Amino acid sequence: MRRKQKTDFYFASFSKAIEFSRQEALMLYDVLQGFQPENLPKVMEEMHKLENSADISKHEMMEKLAQEFITPIERDDIAHLAQELDEITDHIEDIILRMYMFNIQSIREEAFDFAKVIIGCCEQLKTALADFDNYKKSKIIPQAIIEINSLENEGDKLYTKALRSLFTTCKDPIEVLAWTETFRHMERCCDACEHAANVIESIVMNNS
């Protein structure tokens, strides 16, 4: 029973980590839908609280990992996945920060599509991690990883489309710079989700 509790802690912590990311992604979409530039400082504060909570949860996991000899999967794998999940929350927060720093005043259509892709990636990761303690027999995890890979590819195409539209329709060089950076960070969110999915897939393959 004691070992099961230790096992549950790590898998529960992974699920907790991606839930922070999912909440951030939903917040991002809400910000874009009802965009008001003057509200960005308040949004940044709220999102930073989520990111800080994610950091605290990660540190708790690392502290426990440092004290334990027996772990459900390799120690390096636990640390690696924890870091990749943490990257997702960081990148989503970076989007809002860029919008504020570059004083974005209106939202381009492709940003909504990007936000939906990011939400989809986070939700598929949440699905995969909810069954992670059953990784040796899970049929849910491989399907979720396929979906994440597909969404990341969609994000790549969207990035190309967004920049093409930006450079062919926008005449303000400052706005071009602002959205180039913002779209770049949106695309990095999709990449971060795929990186986490790749770590999950590697762990499953190496332990099956």
From TrEMBL:
SUPFAM superfamilies according to UniProt = PhoU-like
Concerning InterPro entries, the annotation shows: PhoU-like_sf (IPR038078), Put_Phosphate_transp_reg (IPR018445), UPF0111_domain (IPR052912)
Superkingdom of source: Bacteria
Q: Which family does it belong to?
A: Belongs to the UPF0111 family.
What is the protein's given name? TIGR00153 family protein
